């Protein structure tokens, strides 16, 4: 029978290191996860599969980590066996994370790799790129040709939700500061989203309320807060009191999304049925208390297959909805319709966002593509884009996206770069990821949250790009922020702090002016 011999360096395994110091393993989790992913990618490129992964089968060397357990169980692996390796990678990362749980920037990627449907898991090569790691050194595939390179951007622990910036012409119209120095916002009629009586009020706030993302309603008086294990809660941001609990534990943590315009509809991604199941998009009519499952499960008793998982949802002018699917394709729904009017042939999509009433931009496999939602035609592709997050500049035909170590402003009409902004110190971070890219409603500033590994610790960095001057206008010493929401009329900025709390910041200085709630106690 076939056999092979391999030298084993004299080093410790991850299992041995977990016994002596689990904290040190967790601190190095991102580079360790990348090393194992690269090893799997090399095996798969050679036509093999590994099989179960355990801490005892990963050897720590001076250069990182290598697979040191049993040799590949299958020399001629099929797609299902390779997909099982990817799921085993997710299980290994979970085991290494321990009781504290998988870190934020890896959490979403682990969920994708452990998807119950093997066909929806990324390949090991794509996993390497999602982690931002260098590609694996592989032997030529059978026939002497190397596998074709496919580009995918880091998921950064989050699912993208997008709002049609072209429909949000709520320009910053700030009056002079009051005597006390607090920013004043433009006057507006009462916010219809304050009337969310159709949804139950919160039954008391938990002690460990850990926020993930925030978003203001179009009127600016309601703040939606997405939190781990608590779904979405709506807050009266002036009174600082919760007014409704919209989604529960089935909610997938992400930045919430209000539909643009004068209505009050909130879009969210949720698990179908029990937590951990497939992902669907749900539209909440807040005043009516109604919820519409955009791509729900088939009716009981039918043989219809489960619909594909939704990775991103964008809501455009007039209530049109685009759902980016992890299995490929982006169906576009007219308001209130149960079936899509058209399905864009986008391939794998992690971000879908309306440019205007007729165009949708999507991110997938290292590029941003603009689509005509009437004809389904691809109008323009921007590449390379190294992260799935991008933002539209209100009132323009420009988009801001990430290209490795810089943010780029790109004009879609001229098909050219108009400006760029460096991610300062990007080269000092190992396994870099982008956690947030948020445009202010006036189209003047871009908030960036990114980070990576620094001496074994995951570090965050924030920058605010002033697109008129090209400068970083975030004051030094500003505490690290995970997510922000600019107020539509120039009021205080809502921000998720690094400890999971939510604060309000001065929109000019980014100094804290109030606290909605603190992060959970350590």
Automatic annotation (TrEMBL):
SUPFAM superfamilies: Protein kinase-like (PK-like), Quinoprotein alcohol dehydrogenase-like
Disordered: annotated span: 180-200
Transmembrane segments: 151-171
Keywords, sorted A to Z: Membrane, Transmembrane, Transmembrane helix
Bias-annotated ranges (Low complexity): 180-197
Stored InterPro entries: Kinase-like_dom_sf, Quinoprotein_ADH-like_sf, WD40/YVTN_repeat-like_dom_sf
Record's protein name: Protein kinase domain-containing protein
Source organism (scientific name): Nocardiopsis composta
């Amino acid at each position: 029978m076939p056999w092979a011999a391999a030298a084993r360096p004299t080093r410790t395994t991850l299992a041995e290191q977990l016994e002596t110091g689990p904290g040190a393993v967790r601190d190095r989790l991102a580079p360790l996860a990348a090393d194992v992913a690269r090893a799997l990618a090399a095996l798969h490129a050679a036509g093999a599969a590994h099989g179960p992964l355990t801490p005892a089968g990963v050897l720590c060397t001076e250069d990182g980590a290598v697979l040191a357990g049993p040799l590949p169980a299958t020399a001629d692996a099929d797609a299902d066996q390779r997909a099982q390796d990817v799921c085993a990678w997710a299980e290994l990362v979970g085991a290494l994370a321990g009781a504290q749980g998988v870190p934020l920037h890896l959490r979403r990627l682990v969920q994708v790799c452990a998807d119950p449907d093997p066909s929806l898991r990324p390949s090991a090569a794509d996993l390497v790129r999602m982690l931002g790691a260098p590609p694996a050194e592989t032997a030529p595939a059978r026939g002497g040709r190397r596998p074709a390179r496919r580009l995918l951007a880091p998921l950064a622990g989050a699912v993208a939700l997008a709002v049609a910036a072209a429909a949000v012409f709520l320009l910053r119209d700030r009056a002079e500061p009051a005597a006390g120095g607090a920013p004043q916002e433009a006057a507006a009629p009462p916010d219809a989203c304050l009337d969310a009586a159709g949804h139950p009020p919160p039954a008391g706030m938990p002690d460990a309320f850990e926020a993930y993302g925030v978003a203001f309603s179009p009127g600016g008086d309601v703040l939606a807060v997405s939190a781990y294990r608590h779904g979405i809660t709506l807050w009266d941001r002036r009174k600082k009191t919760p007014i409704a609990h919209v989604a529960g534990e089935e909610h997938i943590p992400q930045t919430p999304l209000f539909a643009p315009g004068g209505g009050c509809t909130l879009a969210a991604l949720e698990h179908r049925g029990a937590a951990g199941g497939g992902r669907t998009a749900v539209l909440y009519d807040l005043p009516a208390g109604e919820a519409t499952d955009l791509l729900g499960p088939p009716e009981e008793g039918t043989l219809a297959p489960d619909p594909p998982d939704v990775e991103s949802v964008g809501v455009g002018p007039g209530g049109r909805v685009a759902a980016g699917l992890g299995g490929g394709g982006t169906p576009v729904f007219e308001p209130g319709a149960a079936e899509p009017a058209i399905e864009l042939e986008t391939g794998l999509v992690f971000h879908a966002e309306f440019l205007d009433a007729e165009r949708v931009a999507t991110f997938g496999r290292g590029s941003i593509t603009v689509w005509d939602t009437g004809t389904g035609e691809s109008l323009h592709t921007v590449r390379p884009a190294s992260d799935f997050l991008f933002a539209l500049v209100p009132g323009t035909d420009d988009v801001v996206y990430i290209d490795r170590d810089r943010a780029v402003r790109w004009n879609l009409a001229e098909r050219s770069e108009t400006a760029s902004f460096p991610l300062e110190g990007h080269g000092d971070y190992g396994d870099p990821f982008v956690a947030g890219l948020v445009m202010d409603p006036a189209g003047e500033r871009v908030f960036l949250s990114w980070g990576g590994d620094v001496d074994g610790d995951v570090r965050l960095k924030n920058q605010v790009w002033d697109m008129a001057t090209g400068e970083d206008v975030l004051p030094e010493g500003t505490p690290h922020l995970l997510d922000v929401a600019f107020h539509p009329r120039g009021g205080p900025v809502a921000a998720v702090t690094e400890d999971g709390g939510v604060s309000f910041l001065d929109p000019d200085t980014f100094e804290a002016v109030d606290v909605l709630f603190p992060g959970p106690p350590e």
